[in-house]
Design a protein that fits this description.
By secondary structure, this protein is an alpha+beta fold. The protein has helices at 12-17, 20-27, 41-44, 87-90, 125-148, 180-191, 198-202, 234-237; strands at residues 2-8, 31-35, 50-51, 54-59, 69-73, 79-82, 95-100, 111-117, 150-156, 196-197, 211-212, 224-225, 228-232, 240-245, 257-261. The protein has one domain: Endonuclease/exonuclease/phosphatase (Deoxyribonuclease I, Chain A, 4-Layer Sandwich), CATH 3.60.10. The chain is globular and about 50 Å long. The model has no long low-confidence stretch (mean pLDDT 96).
């Protein structure tokens, strides 16, 4: 069994102060994608370059204290790619991909595991426009990658796909994260490009959220959004066996999303 975790840390130093590393030691992950690490290489080196016996690979933002993603893996990847070839968004540190290539004698497909942090558009129209540009460029990239290899992209997508995926959907229809254009992008990803919302294949229940606003009593009242996903190509998606949103501790405003797959690397 292969355990894959996704978690937006909202600052790796902040999450560490809240017990993230100790939790990672016990969760038994084989691979963990983290987003919004909010640090540079000098902070990671010798401190966060390995967690729970997994070596980390990182894509840092050029701007200090902003964005940044990491991917921790127990097995050494065949190759690591930082960025998806887009000058504007690669500067923001949003994409790290670990490739695990199989010897042909094993008759198993090549696999890419990606940790990705999609932009938020909530801070203003200029960032929403940037988010739309990101979506426009990411779709063909994922389509091409998915034709070449099996893919599991984990991360903070910053979109709630359907009404079931957020508490107050009626009041958020004109807000970033639940705009019709964003939701249509995800529908196209699933229905036209062939990707699978792995969590929803395993859990169809309402009130399954991974992010809560720090305002008011959103956490206490479970007024949340499901913004964190495993997006996978069909071949590997069908190997998903169990899911878990970890709610017992809080390391950031997001909760860890844990999914087990019936394969080993």
């Amino acid at each position: 069994m292969f355990r894959l975790v996704s978690l937006n840390l909202n600052g790796i130093r902040s999450a560490a102060a809240k017990g993230f590393e100790a939790w990672a030691e016990g969760v038994g992950a084989d691979c963990m994608g983290v987003q919004e690490i909010k640090c540079q290489a000098e902070t990671v080196e010798g401190r966060f370059d390995a967690v729970a016996g997994m070596k980390g690979h990182f894509h840092f933002a050029e701007k200090k204290g902003y964005s940044g993603v990491g991917l921790y893996s127990r097995r050494r990847p065949s190759a690591v790619r930082l960025g998806f070839g887009d000058k504007e968004f690669d500067a923001e540190g949003r994409y790290v991909e670990a490739r695990f290539d199989r010897p042909s004698r094993k008759k198993l497909p090549n696999l890419s595991i990606v940790s990705c942090y999609f932009p938020s558009g909530s801070s203003g129209e200029h960032r929403q426009a940037a988010k739309f540009r990101f979506l426009e460029r990411m779709a063909p990239y994922l389509e091409k990658l998915g034709k070449q290899r099996e893919v599991i992209l984990v991360g903070d997508i910053n979109i709630a796909h359907k009404e079931i995926d957020l508490k107050n959907w009626k009041g958020n229809r004109k807000n970033s994260g639940f705009l019709p254009e964003e939701r249509a992008w995800m529908t196209r990803l699933f229905e036209e490009l062939g990707f699978v919302d792995v969590f929803r294949t395993l859990n169809t229940h309402p009130e399954q959220y991974t992010w809560w606003s720090n305002r008011g009593q959103a956490w206490a009242k479970n007024v949340g959004w499901r913004l964190d996903y495993h997006l996978a190509t069909p071949g590997v998606a069908e190997l998903a066996k169990s899911e878990h949103i970890y709610l017992e501790q809080r390391f950031s405003d997001h909760a860890p999303l844990v999914i087990d797959y019936a394969f080993t690397l």
